[in-house]
Amino acid sequence: QVQLMETGGGVVQPGGSLRLSCSASGRPFAAHAMGWFRQAPGKEREFVASIRWANGQPYYGDSVKGRFTISREVVKNTIYLQMNSLKPEDTAVYFCSAQRVGASRYDLWGQGTQVTVAS
After folding, report:
1. 41 three-state secondary structure
2. Can you give the pLDDT at residue 26?
3. Second label for 49, Cα 20 to 30 Å away, from 1, 34, 64, 115?
4. How many CA atoms lie within 13 A of 80 on its CB side?
5. How far apart are the C-alpha atoms of 55 and 39, rounded to whole Å?
6. Are 83 and 20 in contact (CB under 8 A)?
């Protein structure tokens, strides 16, 4: 069984920074991509960023472009999300996800980590 574990959430003031990490453990799997999604209270889950596992190509949602950076560390089966210039509207539970090779969608999910941006 595969587990995705997020760490790094917390409370930060507007304009501040946080870095999230997501590590995959358990049964080895081949990933096509890994990414971050978020869900704020009363809202639908939103795509934040993703990264192609093979070549590191990143993709970003419009609301975070220029502020967030996704990266990966292949040998550690880990991805990161560096979040800068945080805004109150970034407040949400952030979920790590993986799309396995052959899957048509993101099919592995972590439990989520809370990010709160408030003064």
Report:
1. coil
2. 86
3. 1
4. 11
5. 27
6. yes
Q: Is 8 left (phi over 0), alpha (psi -120 to 50) or beta?
A: left
Cα gap 13→117, rounded to integer Å: 5
Q: What is the pLDDT of residues 17-73, one digit of tens each?
A: 999 999 998 888 889 999 999 999 999 999 999 999 999 999 999 999 999 999 999
Q: Per-residue pLDDT averaged across 1-28, rounded?
A: 94
Of the candidates 38, 41, 40, 43, the one whose C-alpha atom is nearest the C-alpha of residue 64 is 38
Measured between alpha carbons, how far is 14 from 117 in angstroms, rounded to an integer? Answer: 6
Spatial contact of 98 and 24, defined as CB atoms under 8 Å apart = yes
